[in-house]
C-alpha cells in the first residue's frame, strides 16, 4: 500500500523521447520544426518532461526573436 500523498506513477511515465515530442507538437500548440529546433542539442534517446520541453522551446523562440530584432536594427 502506498503512503498517502505519494505518486502511484513513476516520474519516467510522464516523460517522452525527442521524437515523440516532435510528433506531438500540436499538443504544445507549436509547429514540429519549432520543437525539433529547440530539442536539437538533446540526445535522441533522452527522456524529457513536458516542462523541460516548454522551457527549451521558449528559450529557442526567444533567442530567434532576439536575433531577428538585432539583425533588423543593424545598419550594415
TrEMBL record:
What is the protein name given in its UniProt record?
Answer: Uncharacterized protein
Source organism per UniProt = Paenibacillus odorifer
